[in-house]
Write a structure and sequence with these properties.
- This protein is globular.
- The protein is an alpha/beta fold.
- It folds into two domains: 174 residues, Rossmann fold, CATH 3.40.50.720; 157 residues, Dihydrodipicolinate Reductase, domain 2 (2-Layer Sandwich).
- Helices cover 41% and strands 21% of the residues.
- α1 packs across α13 and α5 runs parallel beside α6.
- A seven-stranded mixed beta sheet has the order 4-3-2-1-5-6-7, with helices on both faces. A six-stranded mixed beta sheet has the order 9-11-10-8-12-13.
- The structure holds L-homoserine.
- The site of L-homoserine has 11 residues, from α8.
Amino acid sequence: MKIALIGFGNVGQGLAQILCEKAAVLQESHGFTPQVVAVATGRRGTLYHPDGLNLEALLVAASRGHLDYYPETEGLYRNWPVPEIIRQSQADVVVEVSPTNLETAHPALDYCYLALEHGKHLVLANKGPVVLAYHELRKRARQAGKQIRFEGTVMAGTPALRTGIQNLAGCFVFAVRGILNGTTNYMLTQMENGLSYNAALAQAQQLGYAETDPSGDVEGWDAAAKAVILAQSLFDAQLSIDQLEVEGITHLTPGDIRDAHQAGERWKLIAQVMPTGGSVKPVRLPLSDPLAHVSGAINAITYTTDLLGEVTLIGPGAGQMTTGFALLSDLLDIHRTM
Ligand code: HSE
C-alpha cells in the first residue's frame, strides 16, 4: 500500500512512528507492508519518492522543523504542490491529517475530492471535511469505488465509530452521550487537582491533546464536531454543527470546580446526540455517574440501543500515538479489502 500523507504534525508523525516500530509485526501478522511515498506540510515543505520515503529520516527532518532536512536521495522530488502530489504520486491511499478547520474545511476538502477523483482511498483524522461534507464525500467515494475512513476523528484510536457502525449493527441506536474532548477533560481534571485554567490548557497543548487553535476545544466546538460526525455516521443524519446547542468550559472557575467537589460532584463537558439534534455543555455530574470517573485525556461514549440497552466504551480521546493508531486501524481495514 502506497500512502501519501497530507499534513505531518503530531498525528502524522504518530502514524510514521507506529509504522516504524511495528513494521515487522504488521508484515508478519497482517501481510501489511505500507510505504509512505509522499508527505506534504503547509509551510514545512513536501517530499515525494516513488519508491517510498525513509520514515526514520522523515521523523528526524520533522523534528528539525522542515522537510528540507530530509537527506538528498536519488529519485526524490521536493516541494511539489499538494494537488500535484495527489495526481502524480501513485499513492493508493491519501491520509488527510492537516489541522482541522471547522468553518470551511479548506484546503483539506479540495484535497479529499481530488484524491477520490484520482482513484485513491481516503483516511482522515482531520474533522473539518467529515463535519462539513460527510454525505458528499460518501457519495463521491461510492462513485469512485473507493473507501473513506475517519476513525481518528472521534475519540482518537478508541474505536467509537467502528463500535457504533460495525459492532452494534443490527441494534437500533437511539442516542449517544459522552465525553468527547480530551483537552477539556484533561483540563477539568487538572483544575480539580489545583492547577489554574491557563496552566491546565498549556499542559494539554504540550501533551499534544489540543487542536492547533485550542479555542475549538475549550469553547466546545471540537466535541460538537465529533457529535455531528457520530450523528452522520450512526444515524445517517443531515445535521450541521450550528444546529447543536454548544457551550464550552471557558467560564468555569476554580471556585466552580471547588463547589462541585464539595457537593460530591464533578464538572464534565458532556456531548449528547440523537438523530434530530444534540448538545455539548458542561454538566455537574454526581460521583455515582460512571462518566464522573473518566479523567485526564480519557474519553467515554455510551450508546443507548434497543437490544443491548446501554453500551459504554472508555479509552484515550486525544494524543499522538493514540490518534496515529486510529489511522493504522483504518489503513488495515482498507488493506484487508485491497
Ligand atoms: N483536540 C482534540 C481533543 C484532539 O482534545 O479531544 C482529538 O480529537
